[in-house]
């Protein structure tokens, strides 16, 4: 079973994503901020992390940096979920080392298909997402 | 009084002067010696024995005409602010140390002119010094009990020894530094001190005579008016006498500028040109005080001492007649101080002139060039010391052989007439750029010749050839050539006559020859610098025009002969730094030549300095036109440079302002960007949530319970969107001041109650207690809807952050003189200190908030702030409140704010 970690401080959004991924038989874990996300990721080693950028305390960028520093998570894909939809924001996110960048509002169906693709096809060029 | 007692007192007095000078020299920067009062008092060296004794003599015989001598200076003083300031500035800049140096430099460092001025001064001042010695000697013998004693030669004449002691004093304190432009604090301090003494003592004797010997001024007047010649003594005389007055006033007007001792104290020793501001009213006041009692002492003398021949010494004889020995001694000491300060400053000034304008440029310059610095310093000092002793000794012998039959007053006037010969070259030199050295020389020579013929020849011939009658009949029998009545003017006093004709011929020759014979470029260069001083002042060395070839090494060698190696190096280093010249520069330019000339001028005078510098440089003569062009150019360059500098400073300032403005704009831009980003984020979040929920709801298998939950979420997010949009629009409206607030005087108590009603239900549900102590009659102007918004917001925040069941909210209403204060406090978790400053910012969210996002748009407090500020009030967090959060706002009672 593929494990996915959803990191967002908006409970309503998380609720929808959780429902959709569970339906697709993902093991779903939820974190409401960066610190909690690192804890869970370290413990569960998810295949993919959906990471919100704008969060209180530790933001998405900082969380990603910490994830990339952690050797245990070297296989984990990270996809940003963000309301910041400007070109330069997307570039910045990818430069930080994210495997994908999805802008809010998003289509759940699209997210699921992209995530599935990314996890099964390791060699997929990440930036095409 | 015995000779020994008087002698002892004199020696003790001189010893005291030595000590005083010693302490003044020890602390040259002290405030006791550096102030406008000491400066003014040192100017009072003008008042000599002539003033102290002579005025009384004149007043007793010819009435108030003695006053003319003091009116000149008084009239001239307002002019000092202009003329003296200029003279002082020029002298400081060029290190000028005497009137001879000043005039010589003005006419292109002319050696002959410097010497001529010096000789004129010697002619004028040596007899004057003699007269001072005469006064000492005569007063000494008057108060001495051994009246029968007659000295048989100078070796047993006490005056000779007094003169020598004065010479020792001057030589000791006057030649400590070879640089004559250096200040002599010791001497100036003693002069100022003596000026106080002589004034106080003279006033004391005046008061004694008027109020002790007589019964006040009225009594004196009544008694004096009985005398035969009284009316003559109290009137100004007719028109003829008017001319005498006029000329004497002119004479003293010039003297206050030109007398070597006056030039020395007023210009050379001046520390600060601002002292002039005090001096121009204090010095006339001093002169006035000095003259108050003169006429009364004169009347008293005429009444009480009808048989005395020499009226000069009334002030001494009156207390002597009463046998008031203490007073006699006091008057004697007072006169003695007047004598000493005059001799001290005069010999000091004259010795500098003799050494720098005659001895060095005409004889010693070659030897000085060959000598090493130590030897040269010694030599220059020795020249001056010898000059000081010689001057005083010559004055002494002049007194012994010549001055027996002259009064203080007449010798004083002759001296003034001689000195006045410098007036055309001095005053015109400062104002007329075409005046030349040749003109000045001839003018002074002609003037001196006229003075000699009209004033000195009659006196000398009386002594030397008593039989020659040309004084009475005129030269070669021409009556219009009678010396004292030249050209038939027979109503002037001899001095006025001499003054009129000498100065007329002098001025005419000066102007005439200056116009006829053009000066060389050097003269014209200095003429520009002196006449148009304010124009070239800031050019400094740049105002000096010089073309030619000279090597820095030669100049350095020359300078170090006089200044020593160390001082020379230091001076040149500073010079190079100031003008941005490389230390390795080999060729000297005009600025360096001028700078070196200045350095040398202080030690050896301007004429010698010029000679020395031309000995190490090859000067190319340049035309007058060129001089003027170069001057104009350097002035323009300087002005342009200044303008450029100003412009560039302005530009820098503007660039700085622009940068700041740009940064401010960028900052605002960034803020706006951030705000828009935040708005977008805040809007997108509920939209995302709604969209995601609706997508999941498409799943038909979803349990009913969950489905309801999602639908509820959608509904809540829609509300959230609505509030958000409403708040954003509200805030924008408030920010742009586009909303008119409906501010009216109302009872705030009512509005608070309304707000409470609005949150009542939520509070009840959460079981939070709200307390409000009502104050019904408090009235303050506000917009009710808006204030309701503020109150509701504060209350909702409190409700949000307090715990259910235990939560308590207190509302307080306080009325002050100028404002009404409302506070909302709770016992929730409070606002972290680091957030307190930001909670009124848009979308500010505490980093320390729980992971659970609080409800609300993030704009509530920002809107509250805008509203309160719209009322000209303020809102803040009470930092001192620790039990929870306490937010306070204040509304002014007057519409114009608190």
Task: Describe the structure in your own words.
The complex is a heterodimer of chains A (129) and B (898). Chain A has 129 residues and is α/β, with parallel strands linked by helices. Helices cover 43% and strands 19% of the residues of chain A. In chain A, strand 3 (48-52), helix 3 and strand 4 form a beta-alpha-beta unit. Chain A is globular and about 35 Å long. Chain A starts with a strand and ends in a 9-residue tail after the last helix. Chain B is built from 33 helices and nine strands. A five-stranded mixed β-sheet of chain B has the order 4-6-7-9-8. Chain B has a two-stranded antiparallel ribbon with strand order 1-2. A two-stranded antiparallel sheet of chain B has the order 3-5. The chains are: A alpha/beta (129), B mainly alpha (898). Chains A and B meet through helix 1 of A and helix 29 and helix 30 of B.
Output the keywords.
heterodimer; A: 129 residues; alpha/beta; 5 helices; 19% strand; globular; disordered C terminus; B: 898 residues; mainly alpha; 5-stranded mixed beta sheet; 33 helices; 68% helix
Strand content of chain B: 5-15%
Radius of gyration of chain B: 46 Å
First-last Cα distance of chain A: 23 Å
Give helix % range of chain B.
55-70%
What is the number of helical segments of chain A per DSSP (H or I, 4+ residues)? 5
The total count of strands of chain A amounts to 5
The arrangement of helices and strands of chain A along the chain is EHEHEHEHEH
Radius of gyration of chain A: 13 Å
Helical amount among residues of chain A, as a percent range? 40-55%
Give the strand order of the largest sheet of chain A, numbering strands 1, 2, ... along the chain.
2-1-3-4-5
Strand order of the largest sheet of chain B: 4-6-7-9-8
Count up the helices of chain B. Answer: 33
Query: What is the number of strand segments of chain B?
Result: 9
Largest interface, per-chain counts?
Answer: A-B, 26 and 30 residues
For the termini of chain B, the CA-CA separation is 86 Å
What class do helices, strands and sheet pairing of chain A give?
alpha/beta
Multimerization state: heterodimer
């Amino acid at each position: 079973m593929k494990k996915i970690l959803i990191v967002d401080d908006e409970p309503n959004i998380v609720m929808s994503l959780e429902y959709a991924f569970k339906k697709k038989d993902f093991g779903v874990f939820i974190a409401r901020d960066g610190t909690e996300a690192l804890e869970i990721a370290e413990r569960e080693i998810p295949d993919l992390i959906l990471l919100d950028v704008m969060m209180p305390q530790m933001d998405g960028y900082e969380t990603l940096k910490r994830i990339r520093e952690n050797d245990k998570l070297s296989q984990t894909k990270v996809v940003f979920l963000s309301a910041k939809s400007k070109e330069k924001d997307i570039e910045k996110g990818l430069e930080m080392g994210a495997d994908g960048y999805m802008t809010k509002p998003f289509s759940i169906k699209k997210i699921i298909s992209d995530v599935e693709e990314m996890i099964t096809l390791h060699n997929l060029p990440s930036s095409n997402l | 009084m015995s000779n020994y007692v008087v002698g002892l007192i004199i020696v003790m007095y001189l010893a005291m002067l030595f000590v005083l000078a010693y302490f003044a020299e020890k602390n040259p920067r002290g405030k006791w010696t550096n102030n406008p009062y000491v400066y003014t008092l040192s100017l009072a060296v003008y008042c000599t024995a002539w003033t102290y004794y002579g005025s009384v003599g004149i007043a007793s015989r010819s009435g108030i005409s003695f006053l003319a001598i003091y009116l000149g200076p008084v009239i001239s003083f307002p002019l000092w602010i202009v003329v003296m300031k200029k003279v002082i500035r020029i002298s400081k800049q060029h290190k000028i140390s005497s009137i001879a140096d000043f005039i010589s430099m003005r006419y292109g460092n002319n050696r002959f002119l410097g010497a001529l001025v010096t000789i004129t001064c010697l002619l004028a001042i040596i007899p004057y010094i003699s007269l001072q010695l005469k006064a000492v000697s005569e007063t000494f013998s008057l108060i001495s009990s051994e009246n029968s004693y007659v000295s048989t030669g100078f070796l047993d004449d006490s005056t000779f020894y007094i003169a020598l002691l004065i010479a020792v004093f001057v030589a000791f304190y006057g030649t400590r530094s070879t640089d004559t432009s250096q200040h002599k604090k010791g001497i100036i301090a003693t002069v100022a001190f003596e000026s106080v003494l002589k004034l106080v003592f003279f006033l004391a004797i005046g008061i004694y005579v008027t109020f002790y010997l007589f019964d006040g001024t009225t009594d004196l007047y009544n008694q004096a008016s009985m005398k035969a010649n009284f009316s003559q003594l109290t009137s100004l005389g007719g028109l003829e006498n008017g001319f005498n007055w006029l000329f004497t006033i002119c004479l003293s007007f010039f003297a206050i500028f030109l007398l070597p001792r006056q030039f020395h104290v007023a210009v050379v020793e001046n520390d600060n040109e601002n002292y002039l501001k005090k001096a121009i009213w204090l010095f006339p006041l001093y002169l006035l005080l000095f003259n108050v009692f003169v006429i009364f002492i004169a009347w008293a003398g005429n009444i009480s001492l009808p048989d005395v021949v020499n009226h000069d010494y009334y002030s001494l004889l009156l207390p002597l007649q009463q046998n008031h020995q203490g007073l006699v001694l006091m008057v004697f000491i007072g006169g003695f101080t007047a004598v000493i300060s005059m001799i001290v400053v005069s010999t000091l000034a004259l010795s500098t002139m003799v050494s720098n304008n005659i001895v060095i440029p005409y004889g010693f310059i070659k030897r000085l060039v060959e000598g090493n610095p130590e030897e040269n310093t010694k030599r220059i000092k020795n020249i001056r010391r010898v000059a000081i002793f010689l001057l005083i000794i010559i004055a002494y012998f002049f007194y012994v052989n010549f001055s027996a039959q002259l009064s203080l007053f007449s010798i004083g006037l002759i001296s003034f007439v001689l000195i006045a010969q410098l007036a055309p070259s001095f005053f015109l030199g400062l104002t007329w750029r075409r005046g030349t050295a040749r003109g000045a020389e001839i003018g002074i020579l002609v003037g001196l010749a006229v003075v000699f013929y009209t004033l000195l020849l009659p006196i000398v011939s009386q002594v030397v050839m008593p039989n020659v009658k040309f004084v009475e009949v005129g030269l070669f029998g021409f009556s219009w050539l009678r010396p004292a009545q030249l050209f038939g003017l027979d109503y002037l006093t001899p001095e006025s006559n001499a003054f009129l004709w000498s100065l007329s011929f002098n001025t005419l020759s000066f102007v005439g020859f200056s116009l006829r014979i053009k000066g060389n470029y050097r003269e014209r260069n200095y003429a520009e610098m002196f006449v148009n001083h304010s124009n070239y002042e800031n050019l400094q060395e740049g105002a000096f025009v010089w073309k030619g070839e000279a090597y820095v090494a030669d100049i350095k060698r020359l300078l170090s002969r006089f200044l020593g190696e160390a001082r020379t190096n230091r001076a040149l280093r500073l010079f190079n730094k100031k003008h941005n010249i490389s230390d390795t520069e080999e060729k000297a330019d005009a600025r360096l030549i001028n700078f070196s000339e200045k350095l040398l001028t202080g030690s050896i005078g301007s004429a010698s300095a010029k000679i020395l510098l031309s000995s190490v440089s090859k000067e190319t003569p340049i035309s007058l036109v060129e001089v003027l062009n170069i001057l104009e150019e350097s002035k323009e360059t300087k002005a342009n440079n200044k303008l450029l500098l100003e412009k560039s400073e302005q530009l820098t300032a503007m660039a700085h302002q622009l940068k700041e403005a740009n940064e401010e704009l960028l900052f605002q831009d960034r803020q706006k960007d951030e705000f828009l980003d935040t708005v977008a984020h805040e809007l997108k979040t509920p939209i995302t949530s709604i969209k995601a929920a609706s997508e999941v709801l498409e799943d038909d298998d979803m349990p009913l319970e969950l489905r309801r939950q999602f639908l509820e979420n959608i509904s809540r997010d829609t509300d959230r969107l609505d509030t958000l949009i409403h708040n954003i629009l509200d805030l924008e409206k408030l920010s742009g001041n586009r909303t008119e607030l409906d501010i009216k005087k109302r009872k705030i108590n009512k509005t608070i109650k309304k707000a409470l009603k609005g949150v009542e239900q939520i509070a009840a549900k959460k079981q939070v207690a709200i307390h409000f102590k009502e104050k019904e009659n408090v009235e303050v102007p506000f917009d009710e809807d808006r204030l309701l918004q503020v109150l509701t917001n504060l209350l909702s925040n409190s409700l949000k952050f307090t715990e259910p069941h235990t939560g308590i909210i207190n509302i307080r209403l306080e009325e002050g003189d100028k404002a009404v204060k409302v506070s909302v406090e709770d016992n929730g978790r409070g606002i972290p200190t680091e957030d307190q400053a930001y909670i009124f910012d848009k979308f500010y969210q505490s980093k320390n908030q729980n992971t659970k996002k609080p409800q609300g748009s993030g704009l509530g407090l920002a809107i509250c702030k805008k509203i309160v500020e719209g009322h000209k009030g303020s809102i803040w967090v009470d930092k001192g409140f620790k039990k929870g959060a306490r937010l306070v706002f204040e509304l002014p009672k007057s519409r114009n704010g608190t």
